[in-house]
Amino acid sequence: MTLTPAPRSSVSDHVFAQLRDAVLSGAYAPDAPLPSERELAATFEVNRHAVREALRRLQQLGLVKVSQGGATRVLDWRVHAGLDLAMSSGDILPVSTLVRDMMEMRACLGADAARLCALRGTPAAKETVIASVDALAAAAPDLDRMGEANVALWRAVVAGSGNTAYLLAFNSLVSGALAVGHVPPTLRTAELLDVAGHRRLAAHIAAGASAEAFAEAQTLLTAPISDRKETRA
Fold it and tell me: Does the keyword Transferase feature in the UniProt annotation (predicted)?
């Protein structure tokens, strides 16, 4: 992979993106050293501050380990990276089923969040879920508006679960360049149009029926996974 000099705008972003893509493409294998800061600065025709900033971002993503006074070594992203990597590099991450994989994660998270929301959601949280279903129904048949309402509904369910880790994971799943919330609504038509299913879900949550809420959420969230065709993420 050939590295090119950085444009004058967004210098650090340019260095970061090229090094990230080089690591993910296999140009630098796990445990291989990156060129020194001095060499990278010369290659990109930038100052060393821009290189350090790019390396700091790569380290935050779990792609490299920066050692003071030593070589910066490449890490295996499969071992060290988190969801932030998918958010920043979905178009280059070497996984052909990433959209499907993220939707499967959403289905697992959403189903358990529905169970917990039914068990320990406050009355106000459960009312928010019911109101969110009404908003979803009111958005029909506009799939774009229904998609936005659907994200708001599941945010209400996850928030009502009282699980902060689930909420942070949900935020990752609906933000960034590659996100479940940005999947074309046509790929989630079965889920979006099942307003009756969402009303059943809200009713189960309101009644504190955790097992039923889990099952209904699982049915709703797995429909788009089984219906969609595999595409390159």
Answer: no
